[in-house]
Specification:
about 150 residues; alpha+beta; Alpha-Beta Plaits; four-stranded antiparallel β-sheet; about 20% strand
């Protein structure tokens, strides 16, 4: 039998200290770079969006890659890309961790809409409240004092 996998992940990356560094002027360059990164890893970036201090990604990951290795490599590559191209001068680095939640294929379309509406969503909802809500929805236990690198 062959291997049949369809691995969707909702990924959240946060700028160190949640500083507001991303601007709409250059975000598409970063998004295109991230899309190319995943294509080079036999994976597919389905959707990406964010605000000044964090990004949401919906990614279909090839089964030969671990999420931990991909996130480490993505953060290193994007850090270098941002700095070499001087896209966001205030960007120093990503927070140490990341969030990755598995998503079923039938939930992917709903999640795409949620990601596409990030800028509208965050006019009403603070990132910290959004993120805690996501953790609670996935029944992930956490210590609020250790939630972010501060």
């Amino acid at each position: 039998m062959g291997s049949y996998c369809y691995l969707y992940y909702h990924i959240v990356l946060v700028v160190d200290k949640r500083e507001n560094v991303f601007t709409e002027e250059h975000e598409q360059s970063l998004y295109n770079y991230i899309g190319a990164f995943f294509r080079n890893k036999k994976s597919h970036l389905e959707c990406i969006n964010g605000t000044e201090n964090h990004l949401h990604l919906l990614v279909r990951i090839h089964q030969s890659f671990s999420i931990a290795d991909l996130m480490r490599d993505l953060k290193v590559a994007t850090n270098k890309f941002i700095k070499e191209n001087n896209l966001f001068p205030k960007f120093k680095k990503w927070q140490n961790g990341y969030a990755a939640f598995s998503v079923t294929s039938y939930m992917a379309d709903r999640l795409k809409k949620y990601i596409q509406d990030q800028k509208i969503h965050h006019k009403k909802t603070k990132f910290t409240n959004e993120f805690i809500g996501i953790l609670n929805k996935h029944e992930i236990e956490f210590n609020p004092d250790e939630l972010f690198d501060n």
